[in-house]
Design brief:
Layout: H1 4-12, H2 20-34, H3 47-58, H4 63-71, H5 74-77, H6 82-89, H7 91-102, H8 112-128, H9 131-145, H10 152-172, H11 176-190, H12 192-226, E1 231-237, H13 240-249, E2 261-267, H14 270-283, E3 292-293, E4 306-311, E5 317-324, H15 325-333, H16 336-343, H17 358-368, H18 376-387, E6 391-395, E7 401-405, H19 410-417, H20 419-423, E8 425-430, E9 433-435, E10 447-451, H21 468-500, H22 507-511, H23 514-517, H24 522-530, H25 536-543, E11 574-578, E12 588-592, E13 595-596, E14 599-600, E15 606-608, E16 617-619, E17 630-635, E18 639-644, E19 660-661, E20 663-665, E21 675-684, H26 689-699, E22 703-712, E23 716-725, H27 728-739, E24 744-749
Parallel strand pairs: 2-5, 15-20, 16-18
Antiparallel strand pairs: 1-2, 3-4, 4-5, 6-7, 8-9, 8-10, 11-12, 13-14, 17-18, 17-19, 21-23, 21-24, 22-23
């Protein structure tokens, strides 16, 4: 275990004027508080915060961050309190320690809502001080290094959590070394057999290529020296997880991989990077499509480097990264490198560190998404989408650079520029050409969004956008549009409900009872009624407290005529005849307010165009087709369910007249929309009977949606077939033709 003076010496190597008093005090305080506590490995517990502090000294962080690392478990696991830490170490360190304490119990694999809420806390704490994340990553790295002592199931849970959240976070803030080590350790426990296999293959490959790698290093170093460039050249091998991921995503075998080995060229100045690149390309041929300049266009996490692949010595493909020492330090330490240079004084700050880090700006943008997601699950989805994507760089017509995940579409681009632009997007020009909105963008594309405020985002966009911001915005716009539809429906339902009882409908009266209804505004009331969450009778009783519900029209003792109709001049609503159910010889009746004096009131009925209606409309299991008399039933959480008036299922709503909605077909002769209907076919058991049924349906230009054998005997089979037909005439024609077939005993519509 590292001694107190050793820790101080580690910090002094990169910060000679270190605050020794602070480090000594934090060391002694944490050691005393943890006392005789032991880790699962049997080591003293204090060894863990000490190792976390050591990892942070490798990042060359300030003594305040090192002190926080020593103290990060004290509030959680010992008798230490926030007040005591504030008093001894100051408010800044106290806040950081408490922030880490709140994040201690992250459960990022199960319980999505808890997972998302903890991730919110983590990102909010990071947005306030990046050192929270640096300590958290060091904490996780040491835990992963000592994961062997845990139970197998716990190892896997922690490894999955690391692969899902911590490794991507390290990558997004540019800390590639920590990111790679976390991925490698997580891979070992998530897929131990795959990890072992790839590791063995890599070790064997390195053994066979050691001499070639040394030769290439020497050739490159000599070439640069010949042209007066001081460069440090070092070979490196891809990690097992990186190799395995590439094999999986690109469906390649191990032998097909050509970039397992790479070389890093580190030079003094940016100009040397481009000189070195020119010399390399003049000496060996470049592999087309394998050149990337992240110096002129840095990644969002501040990563800068030139990447190229050449056919080098011995005709080997050689992957090269060319960068300055500062760039190399940023690639290793990420945002931590900024604090390193800041401590050296602003005059020594390299050009690439003079502005605020892009990686930290990404964190702030992610925090902004907290207010955009309506649920923790949506926020979690958004954040994971942002963590796992590589990038493409596109431009607005005015030259503004927009960084997007790979596979991004113009819709993602529009929302990245501004939410209003995404919401009003109707088309796109890519490099001056009109292109589909689902096109994939490439590096360097100039994207011009065509806008119109007359339309709203299509819910279908969600299926092909890749950014969390776009997905959340589309969902929000869809919910807003749906709420508007439900609000309009609810207002019409209330107007008719008030009219039905002879009372005046007034929005001013409704505003006075909002608190009684538990709603914040009129739109909320209307939408709740439209969704079926708030019965109209409750609204009526809130406005007219003396109102008594006397709805007994379905018990009116008047006999129907021969066709089953009641001809009543002074009763609001028309009563439909319902067939008797088994064991019940009496006719059942139903009221809807769509009928009056035997005439259909087109002005008040809701037009239905099947499942493609603007309002959330569904059909009952037995279906309904144009030509049927239909009724709509408002069901909470579902919308309006359309039933044919003869459906026995309507009996369940006898005592709920407020659920009944006026509906009518709105079908033109030019339309070829199809509607669901269910038929029952009894066929004789004989070869070809099912083929006969299918042929008749196909010949009549209908579609079989579903078919099930509900009863099979030795001499016959009963089938239930769900069809899609144009209308009632179309359905009846099919049924008549089925009945005429010799192999079919009977055919009827279900619930007819």
């Amino acid at each position: 275990m590292m001694r107190q003076y050793e820790l101080v010496e580690r910090v002094q190597r990169y910060k000679p004027n270190v605050n020794e008093v602070l480090l000594n005090k934090a060391y002694i305080y944490a050691m005393r508080k943890h006392g005789s506590q032991m880790r699962a490995s049997g080591d003293p517990y204090f060894s863990h915060p000490l190792e976390v502090a050591a990892i942070l000294t490798d990042m060359r962080l300030d003594e305040a961050t090192i002190a926080v690392a020593l103290l990060h478990d004290t509030i959680e696991d010992t008798s230490a309190t926030r007040d005591e830490i504030d008093r001894l170490f100051g408010l800044e360190i106290g806040q950081l320690v408490e922030g880490l304490t709140k994040l201690k119990k992250l459960d990022l694999v199960s319980k999505k809502a808890v997972q998302a809420e903890n991730l919110r806390k983590l990102l909010i704490a990071i947005s306030q001080d990046i050192r929270v994340l640096l300590v958290k990553l060091a904490d996780r790295l040491h835990n992963m290094r000592t994961l062997d002592v845990m139970r197998v199931d716990k190892r896997r849970r922690i490894a999955e959590e690391t692969m899902d959240i911590y490794a991507p976070l390290a990558g997004r803030i540019g800390m590639y070394d920590i990111c790679e080590e976390l991925e490698e350790l997580a891979f070992r426990y998530i897929s131990p057999e795959a990890w072992r296999t790839v590791k063995d293959r890599l070790a064997d490959l390195l053994k066979r290529n050691t001499d070639i790698l040394a030769t290439i290093e020497q050739d490159l170093t000599a070439l640069f020296a010949e042209h007066g460039i001081v460069a440090h050249v070092k070979s490196r091998q891809k990690k097992a997880w990186s190799v395995f991921r590439k094999m999986e995503t690109k469906a390649l075998s191990f032998e097909q991989l050509s970039d397992i080995f790479g070389f890093r060229v580190v030079v003094e100045h940016i100009s040397d990077c481009y000189r070195a690149l020119g010399i390399i390309h003049m000496t060996w041929p470049m592999v087309p499509g394998r050149f990337k300049d992240y110096i002129s266009t840095p990644k969002q996490n501040d990563y800068r480097s030139i990447h190229t692949t050449i056919v080098g010595p011995s005709r080997q493909r050689v992957e090269l990264q060319i960068r300055t020492y500062e760039m190399d330090e940023i690639a290793e330490y990420g945002v931590a490198a900024h604090s390193i240079y800041k401590d050296r004084g602003s005059n020594n700050l390299p050009e690439e560190l003079s502005n605020e880090t892009n990686a930290y700006a990404w964190l702030r943008q992610t925090i902004q998404a907290l207010s955009e997601g309506d649920s923790p699950e949506e926020f979690l989805e958004h954040t994971k989408l942002e963590l796992f994507r590589d990038q493409v760089f596109c431009f607005t017509p005015k030259g503004r650079l927009i960084a997007l995940p790979s596979g991004a579409t113009p819709i993602d681009f529009a929302y990245a520029v501004h939410t209003d632009i995404g919401d009003s997007c109707i088309g796109v020009k890519i490099n001056g050409r009109v292109m589909p909105l689902m096109s994939h963008l490439n590096n360097g594309d100039e994207v011009e969004i065509i806008r119109s405020h007359a339309l709203v985002p299509s819910p279908a966009w969600e299926s092909f956008v890749v950014t969390g911001k776009a997905r959340l915005a589309i969902r929000r716009a869809t919910r807003t549009a749906m709420r508007k539809q439900y609000s309009g429906l609810g207002q019409r339902i209330l107007e008719r409900a008030f009219e039905r009882i002879g009372k005046k409908f007034s929005e001013d009266d409704l505003k006075l009872v909002l608190s009684q209804l538990g709603r914040k505004d009129l739109d909320d009331v209307f939408a709740s009624v439209g969704r079926g969450e708030l019965p109209p009778i409750d609204v009526i009783r809130s406005v007219y407290r003396d109102y008594q519900d006397t709805r007994t029209a379905h018990k009116i003792p008047i006999k129907p005529d021969e066709e089953g109709w009641f001809n009543i001049q002074n009763v609001v609503g028309m009563i439909f005849k319902m067939p008797g159910r088994a064991g019940n010889t009496k006719n059942r009746y139903k009221i809807t307010n769509a009928w009056q004096d035997n005439t259909w009131r087109h002005s008040s009925a809701l037009p239905i165009r099947g499942i493609k209606s603007d309002i959330s409309v569904h059909f009952s299991p037995e279906g309904a087709v144009p030509g049927d008399r239909i009724v709509g039933i408002l069901q909470p959480g579902t919308g309006i369910v359309i039933y044919p008036i003869q459906s026995p299922a309507l009996a369940a709503y006898d005592d709920q007249p407020e659920c009944w909605i006026d509906v009518r077909w709105n079908i033109s002769t030019e339309m070829e929309e199809r509607f669901p209907a269910r038929i029952n076919v009894i066929a004789i058991n004989s070869p070809g009977s099912l083929a006969e049924v299918s042929k008749i349906i196909a010949d009549n230009d209908a579609n079989i949606q579903n078919l099930s054998m509900v009863h099979t005997a030795s001499d016959f089979t009963e089938m239930i077939i769900d069809l899609e037909v144009l209308d009632l005439k179309h359905l009846n024609r099919i049924i008549l033709q089925l009945k005429e077939v010799r192999l079919i005993s009977d055919a009827n519509r279900v619930n007819a």
